[in-house]
Amino acid sequence: MIFNYFIFGYLALLIVVSAAFYKHDKNVYSKGKFDKINSPKHFVFIYRYIQLSTFFGIILSKIFPSISIGKFFEPSILVSLVGVFVTTIGMFIFISAKRTLGKHYSPCFDSYVPSAIVESGIYSFIRHPIYSANIVILSGFVLATGSLIIAFNALVLAIYYVDAAIREEAKLAQSFVNYRYYQQRTHMFWPRIFVHFNLKKRIRTHKI
User: Fold this and answer.
1) Residue 146 needs a FRET pair 20 to 30 A away by CA distance; which of 43, 69, 112, 180 works?
2) Are 86 and 136 within 8 A, CB to CB?
3) 81, 89, 59, 83: which is closest to 71 by C-alpha?
4) Sign of CA dihedral 181, 186, 188, 192
5) Cross-strand bridge partners of residue 71
6) Angle 129-145/43-62 helices, nearest 10 degrees?
């Protein structure tokens, strides 16, 4: 039971940290931006539901483990620790991406065209690392809790993120002439390892 309390406390802390880094103050993220991206406004409500129900899923799994409702497996200590590790990695990706994006950030449910395309840091490998990070975080939550509620949330979020990324990229390709090249050398949600490997191989071959 003490182990469950530890997992609950740690996951709850990560949720608080994530919420602290998400500053959805429109006066801040829309400052100096005028061209909007067509994004579904209703997702702000789905996002709030995901936050609350994920927290509820963690409570149900770790504080009341005898209640089997909403669980599709009972994670062992090892699987729970793996879930915590995965979630922590996702949180590091999220914080790194958010800090790198800086003033160019705007939430996916109220997106604006940024003043420039950020291609540094993790954005040199992935075009939507914040989306990737959130899916990784929720996947870790699923492993740590076995919660069917959180697994459903991860699926809903993944579907929405794909839709949001497609909408954003269509607009960014219209707004920035070099965006197509950026798309060719990166991937939406995970590093295009083979592309970077081939580029390095070509460079070495050219030098020889």
Assistant:
1) 43
2) yes
3) 59
4) positive
5) 147
6) 30
Task: Kindly provide the b/e burial profile for residues 43-52, where b requires at least 16 CB atoms within 10 angstroms of the residue's own CB.
Answer: beeebeebee
Domain ranges of the chain: 2-207
pLDDT tens column, 29-53: 888 888 888 877 788 888 888 888 9
- Is the CATH code 2.40.30.10 the one for domain 2-207? no
- What span, in angstroms and rounded, lies between the C-alpha atoms of 81 and 87? 10
> Alpha carbon of 126 to those of 7, 30, 119: distances in Å?
30, 23, 9
* Residue from 55, 53, 44 nearest 111 by CA: 44
